Amino acid sequence: MIAFLPKELEEFRLKVRKFCETSIEKNAQRWDENEEFPYDSLRALGEEGILGLGIPEEYGGAGTSRIKLVIAIEEVARVDPNSAFIMEVESLFDQTLLLFGNEKQKSILRDVAAGKKIGTFALTEPTGGTDVAGIKSTAKKENGKYYLYGSKYFITNALVASYFIVFAKTAPELKSKGITAFLVEKGTENFNVGPKIHLTGFRGSAIAGLQYNGAPVNEDAIIGKENEGIKVAMAVLERGRVNISSLALGMLQRVYEESVKFANYRKSMENTLVNFQFIQQYLTDMLSDLEASRLMVYNTAMLIDQGQQVGLNAAATKLFVSEALMKHVKNGVEILGGYGYTRGTVMERLARDAHNTTLSLGTSEAMRMVLSKYLKL
Ligand SMILES: Cc1cc2nc3c(=O)[nH]c(=O)nc-3n(C[C@H](O)[C@H](O)[C@H](O)COP(=O)(O)OP(=O)(O)OC[C@H]3O[C@@H](n4cnc5c(N)ncnc54)[C@H](O)[C@@H]3O)c2cc1C
Questions:
Q1: Residue 127 CA, ligand 1 centroid: distance in Å
Q2: Residue ID of nearest Cα to ligand 1 atom 24
Q3: Burial of 288 (0-12, 13-18, 19+ CB in 10 A)
Q4: Which atom of ligand 1 is nearest to the CA of 92?
Q5: Tens-digit pLDDT profile for the chain (377 aa)?
C-alpha cells in the first residue's frame, strides 16, 4: 500500500495487470525462445491504449501522466520484460518529439500511439555510449540539406522502426555543444539498418546498428535547435530513467513472486524452503528492496508530473532499482536451485534479462557520475 498513490491508480494497475496476464504473458516465452519481435503484444497494447500513455490526447494518446505510464511499464514487465522494454524505448522517441519537436514531427505520434509505427532513439555509437560528447557522427550542410555520416550501435527497435532520432555533430569543434538531433525516416537514401545484434536477454527486441554515409535530410528534420542536441538528449534520458526503473521494478516483483511460490512449495529435509532462515533472509531482503524501489519509482514519476527537476531522483532510482534487481535475481535463481538455471523457467529468463537494466539509459557507473555532481551541501 502506498500512502501517496490515489485509489484510481491502484484500480488502473489491476486493469493493466489483468490485460497483461490474459493477452501478453502466454507468448512471452516463445518470443524469447525464437528471438521474435512481439508484434501481437504491441498491437494489443496499442488497442488497449497503453502505448498511448505519455502522449497527449490531441496526438491520439491517452494523456501525459508519467505515474500511469510507469505503472503500466511495471505491469507489462512483470509478465514480459521485452514488451516493456519496447515501450520504454518508444517513450524516449515520444518524449523527444513532445518536448522539442515541431507540429509536423509531433503529428507522427498518432500512429505511434496506435502501435502502427515505431520510433527509435539513436545516440550510442560502436565506439561508446557513456561518452555522449564523444560521438563521431557528423551532419554536413550543403545547399539547404544536411548529409549524415557515421554509425550507431545498440539501437532498440531499429529493425522494425519507421523513424529514427539520430544525434550527429553539426559543429564538431564545439564538442558536446555542437550536437544536433535529426528525425530520419526509414528508406532515406544511404541510410541502412543492421546488422541485427543477438543479445543475452531481451531477445525479441529487434536491436541493431545503423550506418549512414551521406544520408540527406531536410532542414526541418532538426528536432529542437541546431547545436542543442545535447540538451535534447539529456532532458529525455533523465526523465527516461524512471521508465527503465519501472521496468526493473516489474521484473523484481516477478522475481519475488516466483521465489515465494517456489519456497512455499518445495520441500527439503522434511520442511518447506520458506521455513529455513537462509531462504527467509533472501525473501525478506527482496521484499524490503521491492517496497523501497516502488516508492522511489513512483515518487520520481510524480515529481516529473509536477514539472520538477529530477536529475538526482532519476539517477538514484535507476541505480538503486536496477542494482537491487541484479542482486535479487541471483538469489531467486539460488532459491529455485537447478530449475532457476533451466531454459523455459520464468526465473531463468528474468536472470538473462536483468543485466540490461543496469546498462541501458546509462550504466550504474554513469549514474554514480551523475550523482557525484550533487555531493555538495
Ligand atoms: C539491450 C540494450 C539496448 C540499448 N538500446 C539503446 C538504444 O535504443 N539507443 C541508444 O542510443 N543506446 C542503446 N543502448 C546503449 C546503452 O545506452 C549503452 O550500452 C550504455 O550507455 C553504455 O555504453 P557502452 O555499451 O558503449 O559502454 P562504454 O560507454 O564503452 O562503457 C564501458 C564500461 O566503462 C564504464 N565507463 C565508461 N566511461 C566511464 C567513466 N568516465 N568513468 C567510469 N566508468 C566509465 C561504463 O560504465 C561501462 O562499465 C542499449 C544497450 C543495450 C545493452
A1: 10
A2: 129
A3: exposed
A4: 8
A5: 899 999 999 999 999 999 999 999 999 999 999 999 999 999 999 999 999 999 999 999 999 999 999 999 999 999 999 999 999 999 999 999 999 999 999 999 999 998 899 999 999 999 999 999 999 999 999 999 999 999 999 999 999 999 999 999 999 999 999 999 999 999 999 999 999 999 999 999 999 999 999 999 999 999 999 999 999 999 999 999 999 999 999 999 999 999 999 999 999 999 999 999 999 999 999 999 999 999 999 999 999 999 999 999 999 999 999 999 999 999 999 999 999 999 999 999 999 999 999 999 999 999 999 999 999 98
- Ligand 1 near 300 CB (within 6 A): no
Is the minimum distance from the CB of 89 to ligand 1 under 6 angstroms?
yes
What pTM value is reported for the model? Answer: 0.98
Residue in 117, 102, 137 with CA at minimum distance from that of residue 222: 102
User: For atom 20 of ligand 1, which residue has the closest CA?
Assistant: 129
CA 365 to centroid of ligand 1, rounded, Å: 10
- Residues in contact with 5: Cβ distance below 8 Å, sequence separation at least 6, in sequence order: 67, 298
In the chain the domains, ranked by start, together with CATH numbers, are: 7-117 (1.10.540.10), 120-228 (2.40.110.10), 230-372 (1.20.140.10)
92 lines ligand 1 (CB under 6 A): no
**How many separate helices (H) and strands (E) can be counted in the chain?**
13, 10
Whether the Cβ atoms of residue 88 and residue 247 lie closer than 8 Å to each other = yes
Ligand 1 in contact with 211 (CB < 6 A)?
Answer: no
Q: Is the bond preceding 126 in cis, omega lying within 30 degrees of 0?
A: no
Cα(355) to ligand 1 centroid in Å equals: 12
